[in-house]
Amino acid sequence: MNEIPLILFGLGGVGRSFVRQILDLRDYHADKYDLHLRFLAFCDSRGAVLEPTEGFSDQQVHELLQLKEQGGSLSQHLLGGIQDDLAAIVDIAGQPGTIVVDCTATEATVPALFLALDRNYQVVLANKKPLTMQQEVYDRLTRAGTTAGDPITLSQSRWETTVGAGLPVIATLNRLVASGDEIVRIAGAFSGTLGYVMTGLQEGRAFSEIVQDAYRQGYTEPDPRDDLGGVDVARKALILARGMGWRLDLSDVSVQSLYPEALAERTVD
Ligand SMILES: NC(=O)c1ccc[n+]([C@@H]2O[C@H](COP(=O)([O-])OP(=O)(O)OC[C@H]3O[C@@H](n4cnc5c(N)ncnc54)[C@H](OP(=O)(O)O)[C@@H]3O)[C@@H](O)[C@H]2O)c1
Question: Is ligand 1 within 6 A of the CB of residue 236?
């Protein structure tokens, strides 16, 4: 059986769904690919749990999911501790062939992602923030492991779920670019959340009610202002533009906010 070790940052809505899918597809992975994905470490904003030798049993993983679903922190777990340095977790738990998966919504993962790439591990991001920082950060995250001038080499990183909700948008873009096609324009509805809000408005519902509803159902970003202010869409546009080879920064993408400036200083609650 091929064992692939995983380290996961973030056990929010997306991280937990990712873990659940892996548990649900154990038989499929084994039958089809002779594959077992083994969790070595989980991290949330305050804590981490590590099992760097054997990896966690599925029973333990279920318990961790339950803890997070109930709003707990990994630091409270029997095997857990406080973490404020994700790179240290990669250092301790990582082993050859590890994939580090970033399901957080923070730039704070970047040093740990760099360390993982330096160690020749692979990196998968649902988190858009590291890819929308300075161009150099994007370049380093997306080109690690490629050979200069070789359009076929795949990098050590994947970031498919950052745009298009997991539809093969980035893979298609990369393939078009690699084959020499010139992309002149990308058009689309870049935010399911804004689509949801607009449909609600068309139905005559109150803006505040629709936003709360979308937040409760997990359709919005952790901070709904990232959706309503257009920042999340801007990040997606920037990731696609950079994928086309355009060297831009987030400040180059113009967006119009759907909430008044006065709300910018308030907390999410
Ligand atoms: N929702 C979607 O449909 C969707 C689609 C594509 C991509 N994404 C992206 O996926 C990411 C996760 O979204 P989500 O809805 O799951 O967010 P979420 O529910 O807020 O979860 C974020 C997770 O990251 C953890 N975290 C925050 N800071 C951390 C740090 N410094 N170190 C380690 N862990 C940290 C949080 O810890 P605590 O549990 O302690 O708070 C939480 O477990 C976001 O970047 C989002 O843009 C989401």
Answer: no
How many Å apart are CA 55 and CA 35, to the nearest integer? 15
pLDDT, tens only, 157-211: 999 999 998 899 999 998 998 889 989 899 988 888 899 999 999 999 999 999 9
Spatial CA neighbour of 124 closest among 246, 236, 14, 218? 14
Let me know if residue 176 belongs to a domain. yes
Is 116 close to ligand 1, i.e. is its CB under 6 Å away? no
For every residue of 177-206, DSSP letters joined together read HHTTPPP--------HHHHHHHHHHHTT--
Same domain for 205 and 102: no
76-86: per-residue pLDDT in tens?
A: 999 899 999 99
The answer, yes or no, to whether any atom of ligand 1 lies below 6 A from the CB of 102, is no
Between CA 188 and CA 146 the distance in angstroms is 30
For ligand 1, the distance from its centroid to the CA atom of residue 221, given in whole angstroms, is 8
Q: Which of 127, 144, 172 is the last residue of a domain?
A: 127
79 & 185 share domain: no
Domain identity same for 50 and 112:
yes
Known catalytic residues are 236
- With a 6 Å cutoff on the Cβ, whether 140 touches ligand 1 is no
Mean pLDDT across the chain: 93
Residue 192, pLDDT score: 87
Intervals of the chain under pLDDT 70 = 151-152
Pocket perturbation via mutation, ligand 1, pick of 21, 45, 159 by most ligand atoms within 8 A of CB: 45
